[in-house]
Amino acid sequence: MRPSSRTPDQMRAVSFERGVSKHAEGSCLVKFGDTHVLCTASLEERVPPWMRNSGKGWVTAEYGMLPRATGDRMRREASAGKQGGRTLEIQRLIGRSLRAICNLQKLGENQITVDCDVIQADGGTRTASITGGFVAMMDCLLWMQERGMVRASDVATDHVAAISCGLYNGAAVTDLDYDEDSSAQADANFVMTGSGGIVEIQGTAEGDPFTEEQFAQLFGLARQSIAELVKLQKEALAR
């Protein structure tokens, strides 16, 4: 039995609320149960210096956690003078995941920065950030489309979403919350496209190695969960 009483293939309640930021070109408040992330997409009509005159655009991301996103207050990284290794790794993952489904040539020499700020953390913050970050980015592309700058479907050629799966009490389960993640025998983050393409898989055994059969179980759960997330993304973007 999972601590949340969910079945092995049951995700937490997932929701996307668009247009939550007055100033950002695109925004989405994504909730995976008690994990809440505010994703904002900002447009700049320029690209990094190393991309100038390339005819291509750029999509990048930044990630952070508010001091009381967790049980104990965390010190702001700005006050420490630098970002931590975990933060850098996660924001690079978000950026890679979003770029994987973008035709940067069609974006033109514009840059979209997706900021993912964790308001409340209960496991799966990076996967929620990727999934909600896509909706925020699409909001930004639709904003650009309304102004004749791009055609959104030319830039974003597919959906992208992510989910965490793991072995909890020996069973493969999807969408780990903190209680499960902190005691899982193995856990993996899966990033996949709406058409089933694999963008990235991060898997780790926390104790004994896991088997190929167990990995196949985790992968099967991830495919099912990501298909559900893409369906929810489409419903949110249609509203």
Automatic annotation (TrEMBL):
Catalytic reaction annotation: tRNA(n+1) + phosphate = tRNA(n) + a ribonucleoside 5'-diphosphate
Annotated EC: 2.7.7.56
Single Gene Ontology BP annotation: tRNA processing
Top EC class for this record: transferase
InterPro entries linked: ExoRNase_PH_dom1, ExoRNase_PH_dom2, ExoRNase_PH_dom2_sf, PNPase/RNase_PH_dom_sf, Ribosomal_Su5_D2-typ_SF, RNase_PH, RNase_PH_bac-type, RNase_PH_CS
Statement: the UniProt record of this protein carries the keyword Cytoplasm: no
Sorted UniProt keywords: Nucleotidyltransferase, RNA-binding, rRNA processing, Transferase, tRNA processing, tRNA-binding
Any one GO MF annotation of this record: tRNA binding
PROSITE patterns xref list: RIBONUCLEASE_PH
Annotated ranges, domain Exoribonuclease phosphorolytic: 10-140, 160-224
HAMAP family for the chain: RNase_PH (MF_00564)
Known role: Phosphorolytic 3'-5' exoribonuclease that plays an important role in tRNA 3'-end maturation. Removes nucleotide residues following the 3'-CCA terminus of tRNAs; can also add nucleotides to the ends of RNA molecules by using nucleoside diphosphates as substrates, but this may not be physiologically important. Probably plays a role in initiation of 16S rRNA degradation (leading to ribosome degradation) during starvation.
Subunit structure: Homohexameric ring arranged as a trimer of dimers.
Name of this protein: Ribonuclease PH
Species this protein is from: Notoacmeibacter marinus
Classification of source organism: Bacteria, Pseudomonadati, Pseudomonadota, Alphaproteobacteria, Hyphomicrobiales
UniProt gene name: rph
